[in-house]
Amino acid sequence: MFEFAGTINVSVPIGVAERQLPLIVPEFMEKYPKVAINFIVTNKKIDILKESIDICIRVGSSKEVDNNLVMRHLGYLESVLVASPEYIQRYGIPKHPNELNNHKLLSNNLDNENQIWFFENLEQKLNTSIKPFIKASSLTLLMSLGFVA
Question: Which pLDDT band, with edges at 50, 70 and 90, does 20 fall under?
Fold first, then answer.
């Protein structure tokens, strides 16, 4: 039986590294004990060929297809709008997405000053332009900021 050995370079977004890798890496290490992993943890777009990346995991749309690479779809992410009880007590609950800019919004999208958030329920779909109060590339940091004064 063939046994995998060597080192692989894996580029992964910060949120995936912080939340998902601890759940799957131990099993991988058990299954492939002779494979060492170098994780390059970043949300920035990198040239994976130039940086000698063997596996690159990215979150986003497949609009940016590179024909020099093989891309596999791993799944979908569903975003939800949340607030801590302390935030709701202090600032209230918006009645409509158009009221969100009156609130202190947190976002993990550092790319755009103004962003479009999409909302959907059983009756309608809509989008609204928002301006985040705080943007950070770390979901862990954003979650710990659950209440912003």
Answer: confident
Predicted TM-score (pTM) of the model is: 0.65
Instruction: Give the chain's mean pLDDT.
Output: 84
pLDDT at 40 (0 to 100):
94
Instruction: Read off the tokens for 102.
Output: 């009156």
Find the helix or strand (DSSP H, E) in which 36 lies: strand 35-41
Summarize the confidence of residues 106-129 as an average pLDDT.
82
Length of the chain, in residues: 149
Phi, psi angle pair for 76, to nearest 5°: -115, 150
Do the Cβ atoms of 40 and 9 come closer than 8 Å? yes
Q: Which pair of structure tokens corresponds to residue 80?
A: 């939800």
- Residue given tokens 């130039």 in the structure block: 50
Q: Which long-range contacts (CB under 8 A, 24 or more apart) does 100-106 make?
A: 100/128, 100/130, 101/129, 101/130, 101/131, 103/133, 104/133, 104/134, 104/148, 105/130, 105/131, 105/132, 105/133, 105/134, 106/132, 106/133, 106/134, 106/135, 106/136, 106/142, 106/145, 106/148
DSSP letter for 146, please.
-
Run of H or E residues at 29: helix 21-31
Pairwise pLDDT comparison (50 vs 143), residue with the higher score: 50
